[in-house]
Amino acid sequence: MDIGLAMQAMRDPAGVPAHPVLFQILMVFTWIFHIIFVNLTLGAAGLAIYSFQRRHSHNHWERLSIATTKVAKVGVSLLIVLGVAPLLFTQVIYDPQWYVSNVLSARWAIAFIFTLIIAYCAWFIFYFNNHTGAKSFIVGYAGVALVLFCLDGLIMHVLSYQALLPEQWLAWYAPNGIVDSSGSTLHAILWPRYLFVMSLSVPAIGLFLLAYAEYFSQRADYTPEYLNFTNNLGRSLAFIGFSIALFPLLIWQFMHPAGTGLITNPMGWLLAVSLMAMSMWIRNMPPKVHGYVPLLGGLGVLTLLAIWREIVRIQYLKPFGYSIADYTVNLDLPSTLLFFSTLLGVGGLVGGFYLTLLYRSARVQGPYTAEPAVSKLGNWAIIVLAMWIATFFTYGIVIWVRNSFLV
Ligand code: HEM
User: Fold this and answer.
1) In whole angstroms, what is the distance from residue 180 CA to residue 307 CA?
2) Is 3-176+186-329 a CATH 1.20.1630 domain?
3) Is 0.85 surpassed by the pTM of this model?
């Protein structure tokens, strides 16, 4: 059987509603936001546990543990929500690979959801009980949650990686010619790739702490000693984290299959250089640098990673003649227009309003009164949301009436 032809046949016969490269760009772009919150959450969860264990040595640790527990709590919900968009785009242009990979490890794909639910519940138990004078045993819940979060990351990695190895699908589906439809095996793990992406959680929480110290510097209830403590810790974690992450990345670099040209591809090396540059810069950064600036560097590293993952995917699938460029296009302008206006209107304006509100409100101690600009933004957010709901339903009803009664 020609696996390349099989992949073509498994494509959605309806095609895609706009040029496939558009979906590719959106997939890479939206994945950046997913992985930002994966790394932030795992870093915050790890630090929350570590600080909890050190809480008797100084009250800074206790305060930090409570704060990072909250960061991880919010982070999980965001990483889930922000995982949906790249998931949808992957399913649009890489549907044969993604579905085969999921079916081959179906039990794990389903277990992913349940383990994520259990992990999140365990984290909430830790969150509810992590306050001054907390009992020691509650850290067990946090430990279970963190292990399960890492397992979920591993499942995500396996699903991504198996999708790149079509030449092995048949052997996994029917080992020695006997069909195994249990879906109970994780068939392929590339440990350096998994460990590299996960290890970025250490610098991520480091950069977050630098921004945290800057953000709360205006508030009287955050003492300079505490903010100095978080700033120093953030700097150490970011420096150490970027340096450590270089090792699994370099191992991954040399594990790319011969003939794909990935070992000599400049993009992978640019990623390695960006890690080195970040770690050196953080180490020597003058104290007067604004605490948000390093975040931009972190964003740059994750953007390179997102692009690099896509280059890796393209090169792995090329020998099988699979290219998204020849995906059938059935242009559907109204739905494409609806999508982009949703992204800009609801994502940009309504999302922008929430972000501005959150940002401004926590900078003041006690109740916050919205400035006129923020309040105006809020009004516009409501108007846009109402327009979006009206358009969405009108569009659906028109199509339903046309297809059901007029054709
Ligand atoms: C604690 C939970 C999660 C963790 C730790 C996690 C971690 C990861 C990691 C490490 C990768 C990169 C894998 C690789 O490149 O080898 C990844 C990719 C991805 N994750 Fe997550 N993830 C989680 C939850 C989710 C959820 C809930 C969704 C969807 C709603 C999601 C959607 C995706 C998608 C679409 C990809 C890219 C797949 C591809 O490119 O083929 N993730 N995730």
Assistant:
1) 35
2) yes
3) yes
